[in-house]
Amino acid sequence: MTFEIIMISVYLISFIIITFYYLFFYLKIVFYRKNHLTELKKNNFKYKFNSKIDDYGLSIIICAKNELENLKQNLPKILSQRKLTTIINEQSYSFKYEIIVVNDQSNDRSIHFLEEMDKKYDFLKIVNINESINHSEGKKFALTLGIKTAKYKYLLLTDADCTPNSNKWSNIMFNSFLSSNNDFDVILGYSPYKKQKGFLNKLIRFDTFNVAQQYLSYALSNLTYMGVGRNLAYRKALFFNNKGFASHIHIPSGDDDLFIQEITTNKKIKVGIEFSKDAQLVSESPNSWKDWLFQKRRHVSTSSFYKKKFKILLSIYPLSQISFLISLIFAIFLKINPILIYSVLFLKLLISYSINYKSMRKLDVHDLYWLHPMYELIHLFVQANFVFLNLFRKPRKWSR
To answer: Most C-beta atoms within 10 A of its C-beta, which of 93, 131, 224, 276?
Structure first.
């Protein structure tokens, strides 16, 4: 077998694999439609409560460590969320909710601000972790205390640096649990970064889109492997039935991916997704390569604990991209069958542009659309760099 045949074979196989991911997974984002909003408008939404209506409230949990400025900016917006309402069996219902802020050993006077806010809002609860308490690295301990404090059936998690796109965020996420009578157990939300000037911001937002495109489309394919802690909801009972984060408490991160993988092992657990504009939360992107590098390395390090099938699924796609690129370069340099090579390249770009046109609009990164192949290429090598660095250096500690 000649070198030219090997290169063409690698090129075509890589193209087939990439195309499979686009058509089998990512296309699901394009055609995803949320039916329950239409049903609510028509007043024909049918749902049967399986417990007392009073149990169907929502507990919003925020863990914060030295986040005074973010709390000042974002907590009032979360406190001003609309009341929880829905229309079931042609009747309107209202539900209670609470907001729990866990102050995780902050030393920036966060507790004083929170205590002042606590006096103004009776549905705000403050959990303060004393500095004398020695707990595991990361926010799992703080999150566990917040969940134990929660009194309602459903939990909605976010971070102190996240700003809701609208005052409908919590109501939409809550209604998603009851969507189309599916009685979901987990709702995977979406939380992009704010659009700002600079190439780094564009690359970070593309990375966020890439991650979301994967975990949302995989969830629609019954292959749920993660959510994002900035916008994630699930039944409180799932946490206690799983004994919380006990199996991976020694790992600083994993509260939104390792935990999600564990609870969705049970095929009876129903997972829904929610990425409509009003249900998104946005936050400031890291403002330096160093900060983003540490953030991504922490996420990549957790992936080494993923189940084998997810490791394979998440590895095949980038490896196929790399092999496609390498074989393309060799084919162009050696002038191997130019008609075939350029035809396949054109087809790949056509598929990518066609599917990402709708996906990038839905996930609010449409400004990156025309140059997305360039961002994809750079992102591919940056990801490889993260993996390489994790082999030699331990990521720094979690700060919020």
So the answer is: 224
